[in-house]
Description:
alpha/beta; Nitrilase/N-carbamoyl-D-aminoacid amidohydrolase
Amino acid sequence: MKIALIQNRDHGNVDSNIKDTENKIREAASNGAQIICTQELYTSNYFCREQSEEHFAYATEIPGPLTDNLSLLSKETGTVIIASLFEKAMAGLYYNTAVIFDTDGSLLGKYRKNHIPQDPHFEEKFYFAPGDTGYPVWKTKFGKFGIIICWDQWYPEASRLLALKGAEIIFAPTAIGWLPEEKAELGEKQYSAWLQVQRGHAVANSCYFAAINRVGTEQPIEFWGRSFVSNHYGELISEGSTYKEEIIYAVCDLKALEEHRQIWPFFRDRRIDTYSDITERSL
């Protein structure tokens, strides 16, 4: 299958962000993409840089006008669309959510981000409840995939559960970048850790892994872009730039993936009888 990742910057307002992303989805579809994924919270800036009640206005109900338009766009382009949104479930209850539309425009389902960070300028616990959807996998005519969102990327259990449910590719909409006081000393180390842990998920789970980041500076965060697709050997088969808005394409060979799983039988050799302690907070 051919996938496309939409790496964008904030264009200043919701309408501009939505319009620009829709145009890029149409462009990706015209270039043969079959599954298209946005960055995290693509309709707005990364508002979690601060705690403000005003930012709850970015939230959208599902279903609602935004998802109705995504449904029409998916049907128009004949693509599977994965879109990362700020979901309003009810007053006082909000989630960081990805919605998935099939080629006929039907809403296949949604994933709500499970791991919610709380750090300076990543104030997500103020906005989002922890997800309650588990780790679903969706089967489409193009292949099986699952979704994790940003902070989920650091937890091997999340990717493992998706792989055990049959995911051939894991999509990870993301908003991650450097803080100015840390970049000189830690910037490349932070980027390297982010990249390596996700490539490790691809290797350990014999799957493709696609991370989609944003670009641009939203004070004080400088988002580092570099969206990528890794194959099951951990090789980068496609990678975006640090500063440029762009569409990153990759072709995922699912037949080769199946053959790889047969000769690297990680799932066969798992000692599930030894893992019961994994659900404990500490030992």
